[in-house]
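Slide 14.
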Amino acid sequence: MAQERKSRRFRIAAAVAMWLSITAIALFASCGTPERENGNSLYGGNQVPQLAGTPPQPLQRQGTTTDGSVAKTKPVENAQSAPARRANPQQSEVKGIYVSGPAAGSVKKMNRLIRLADRTEINAMVIDVKNDAGRITYDSAVPLAGRIGADRGAPIRDIQALLKRLKDHRIYTIGRVVVFKDPYLAAKLPHLAMRGKTGGTRRNRESANWVDPYLQEAQQYVIDIAKEAAQLGFDEIQFDYVRFPADSNNRGTLSPSDKPTKAQAIESFLRAAYRELSPLGVRVSADLFGLTTTADDDMGIGQLWALLADEVDVLSPMVYPSHYAPGVYGLKHPDLHPEEVVRRALMDGIDKNKALPAEKRAEIRPWLQAFTAGWIHPHLDYGKKEIRAQIEAAGKLGIHGYLLWNPKCEYSL
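Slide 15: predicted structure.
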């Protein structure tokens, strides 16, 4: 038994290493530059929005059981009451696609993506608010963002007009906020950057700077951006890269003896973020490594399912078959088995949820692969058939909500 556990840990460690080595290639390619026909934006205008208004309804935390039904309702204390946000689509059946800032600022691409939603089951869009380059995609009123120029050259000229158009098409809007991977902030404010063993600014394997997750200033900057996005009208805030870099050594501004664990630091951030976002009437979700559903520990990045499930409404493990190392789940080439990888990964996630009290279970809404991993040999060309196989695998487990990732923002459905 001990040898079996050791072997399992080795396989997971190898899979983590593979995941990081290919993430830079697969996930963060540009979706293109924004198209501005004749110099005009899609929505017109570039004024900084005014955020004052009627206080929204206090959020009720909701998760689901394995069949997608509501499993918990936890009222938020000390929140002000106000009109409710629309309830369509059903929160447990969000079926979304990723949309980059440049795509969201393009006339042609948004027309195409909205037509896709109108003719298919797609009812949600995950739109970059703050991307993995540390840039904000619209004109922001957050003071620090303006001071460092994080919104300079923002591709979305009028974020409120964009959100209104999507809501007119009954599209649920999710604002993606990249958290601790922020090369722009780390470069502008080096005291917030992760530090290496020698005290210098460290870089992860994608050669992009990270800010230190232990630092309150770095945390609050992200929370302020998330709150602004919620006030602008997003239905949900999604935190991505809410972790430590996978090659980090836990060094930062505090001495090791004074620090919580990495997992406790990530848990604490999400708890603080939820506390500030709850009164604004939005749901809160977090993206996780796909392997968090299976791994027994936090894999050195601070993502531990049992701790995070109680801090957000939704957990979205990225169960892309191309991101699993050979041998994981007994599959020689996981990318060739989209249905089986998704099934095994989500079964493990369901088991982890079942081990928690019902009121501490977050809804599981996976990220699914909608891109072809051409750098893997052999690999599948991921089109409608392969995407549908993943959706159906999740559905057979009672998980009917999903998100599709394609860095080019092109989807076959």
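Speaker note: Residues 2-7, 20-88 have pLDDT under 50 and may be disordered.
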